[in-house]
Backbone:
């Protein structure tokens, strides 16, 4: 943008300079020519005065030699039927034409012109006074004047372009700051503000941006508080559910219900804390996907055993740290594992594969008929909310990966997160393999 402003200023000032420079250059050449001809006319007039007093050739020779033009061989007097007095540079035809017209004439000759001044003597004879003006005299001072005018034009163009560059730098700097702030705001930094600077229009835009950022911050704060309040409202039915679970007799089912209540209470507490921290509190957090997966499998394995689902884990010997809060990773893993339990019948086997390349969950169920439609938010052909795969997709995009939904080697569906742009993810990563039947 700055270079565009400089080019615009350069183009405008150059056109203005040329608009004045060309006429001035032409006028300078015309003035120099008029000055030289005027000087020749004055010298011819002075000699005409001498002719009016006496036309004796000897006297005329002395008079011609006493003039500036005559001493340099540029003045001559043409008397009828006599040899010209002085040095002539014109032809006889040009002299005869001037005598017949009886008015001053400029006759081109050689590199210059000759000024011919007719005059009539007392005896009626016509005498022609010739003053030769060489080309160098016609152009004397023109080149210097053109150089001065060119230097002046270059100086004006350079000065105006430099001034435009200084003004443009302020404009570009203010525009870049506004653009960078907008990019940071779009990236989740709600504390960013812009210092109004530059032209009035950019200052108005900066004030509007600051107002928008403040309104957005307040709106998101209200949304977070509302989410926290809604999560807190779930504690009432959870308390009733916990009382019922604690009243159950000891056994696998009662233990699983009490464990689920404890886990749900922890999740609600984490949701409330995370929502109140907001985006600023979650920035720069990270978690180990392997650790989160192991923790969540401890919960889902109980349900898998109850439903008699064979399952296995491949990989997990290398930490996979992702730039995401632990609570969000738990939500992603639960969405991927819960998809198996929600959309496959009891007894369906599944396999979890984890490595630095990504996380894959394969099952032996009926599969997903339309993967493209399945990842659309709120769309579900199995009667669910349709949010699970969209949660996984958004999490994958957050860490720079991508969501995979395809056919599993087990015959069902494969849902995974690819963390590296590899052509293929190993079907079964090496390391620990555990199976529960």
Residues:
């Amino acid at each position: 943008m700055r270079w565009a402003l400089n080019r615009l200023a350069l183009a405008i000032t150059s056109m203005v300079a040329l608009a004045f420079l060309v006429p001035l250059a032409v006028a300078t050449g015309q003035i120099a020519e008029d000055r030289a001809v005027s000087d020749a006319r004055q010298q011819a007039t002075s000699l005409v005065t001498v002719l009016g007093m006496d036309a004796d050739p000897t006297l005329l020779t002395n008079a011609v030699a006493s003039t500036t033009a005559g001493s340099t061989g540029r003045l001559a007097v043409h008397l009828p039927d006599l040899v010209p007095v002085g040095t002539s540079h014109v032809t006889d035809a040009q002299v005869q034409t001037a005598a017949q017209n009886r008015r001053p004439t400029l006759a081109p000759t050689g590199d210059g012109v000759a000024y011919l001044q007719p005059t009539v003597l007392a005896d009626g004879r016509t005498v022609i006074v010739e003053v030769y003006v060489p080309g160098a005299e016609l152009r004397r001072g023109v080149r210097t004047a053109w150089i001065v005018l060119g230097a002046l034009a270059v100086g004006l163009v350079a000065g105006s372009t430099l001034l435009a560059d200084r003004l443009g730098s302020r404009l570009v700097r203010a525009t870049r700051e506004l653009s960078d702030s907008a990019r940071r705001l779009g990236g989740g930094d709600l504390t960013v503000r812009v210092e109004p600077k530059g032209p009035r229009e950019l200052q108005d835009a900066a004030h509007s941006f600051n107002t928008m950022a403040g309104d957005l911050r307040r709106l998101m704060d209200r949304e977070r508080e509302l989410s926290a309040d809604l999560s807190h409202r779930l504690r009432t039915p959870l308390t009733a559910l916990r009382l019922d679970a604690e009243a159950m007799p000891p056994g696998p089912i009662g233990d699983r219900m009490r464990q689920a209540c404890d886990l749900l209470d922890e999740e609600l507490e984490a949701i409330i804390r995370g929502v109140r921290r907001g985006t600023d509190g979650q920035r720069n957090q990270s978690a180990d996907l392997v650790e989160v997966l192991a923790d969540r499998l401890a919960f889902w394995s109980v349900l898998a055993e109850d439903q008699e689902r064979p399952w296995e884990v491949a990989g997990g010997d290398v930490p996979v740290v992702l730039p995401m809060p632990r609570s969000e990773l738990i939500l992603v893993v639960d969405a991927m594992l819960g998809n198996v339990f929600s959309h496959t019948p009891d007894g369906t086997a599944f396999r979890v594969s984890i490595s630095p390349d990504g996380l894959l969950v394969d099952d032996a169920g009926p599969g997903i008929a339309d993967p493209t439609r399945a990842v659309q938010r709120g769309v579900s052909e199995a009667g669910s909310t349709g949010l699970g795969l969209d949660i996984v997709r958004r999490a994958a995009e957050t860490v720079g990966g991508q969501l995979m939904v395809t056919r599993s080697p087990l015959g069902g569906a494969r849902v995974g997160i690819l963390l590296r742009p590899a052509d293929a993810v190993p079907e079964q990563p090496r390391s620990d393999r555990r199976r529960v039947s």
Confidence is low (pLDDT under 50) at residues 422-437.
